[in-house]
Each structure stands twice: as structure tokens, then as C-alpha cells.
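Example record used in the benchmark description.
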Amino acid sequence: MRPEKQFLVDEINTHLDKSDYLFLADYERSTVVDIAELRAELVKEEAEFHVVKNNILKVAARERGYPGIDEHLNGQNAIVIGGANPSGVAKVLTKFFDKKDKMDVKVGILSSQRLEKEEIIALSKLPNIDAMRAQLLGLLSQPAQSLVFVLSGVPKAMLNVLMAKADKGE
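Model output (C-alpha cells):
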């Protein structure tokens, strides 16, 4: 491989090292203003939008063992990577692409698993990580609350009997 090409592959690998997911987007009909607007939205999720050459991404993807994205590497493509919340990034992408109707998500990779467009849309509908943590905490605390209620019922009943006995005795 020529040194110039290896440099570009290394640069893409540096970007891919930033996260465990990748979304491949078609931006062929987009303007510079559209892309700047999308980048501004992605910054909120700590994600990045990078225009890539198809053959360079193909080499980097093969090196990493990404499953079958070669068939989507035609036309003008960009990768979206970074950020700790792939669901939030997918949400930003699907909302933006629905609004602009100029761009489209082709395919994604999440933890070395290929995601089709429909799966990316489903991922975007998931609640964010903080909401999921709150739901899990609620589920975990509910049995504990029930147990405390049951365990405190016996002493309360005993106290009520004793209070009734004391009131009757007076």
C-alpha cells in the first residue's frame, strides 16, 4: 500500500477508535450548511461527522473486521462516530434526516454487529441511558419497598393491639 493511502487509512482508524459504533451516511444531496447544522447537533451528543473516501473506509473496515458494509460504499459517504450514547446519536441522525430529506443513514455498526437502517431507527426510539438507569433503579427498589412494608406490618399490628388494650384498660 502506498504511504499516502496508508496515512488515510490510519486517519480513519484514529476516528474509528473513538467509539464502538459507526453510522454510515449518504450526504450526496446535502449542502455545506446542512452538514454544518448536522455537525452542530452531533456535538451535543459528543459525536463527529467525517467525510470519507469509500475505498479507504473499505480497507479500514476490513482491517477491523466490520461485517459487510462494502455494498454500501458507493456515492458520497460520511461516517458518524464518537460519544457514549449510540441511541442518542441515532436519534439525532434520524430526526435530522427526516427533517432535511437530503441525507440518509445507510448502515451502522454497533459493537461489531451490523445494523440495517430499520434497526438504527429502532435504536433511535430507545430512551437515553439516564432514563434507562432510572427505570432499572425503579424496578429494583420496588421489591425492597414491598418487603419493608410487609416487615413493618407485624410490629405496627402489634403496636395497634397494645394501644387498643391500653385505651380499653383506662
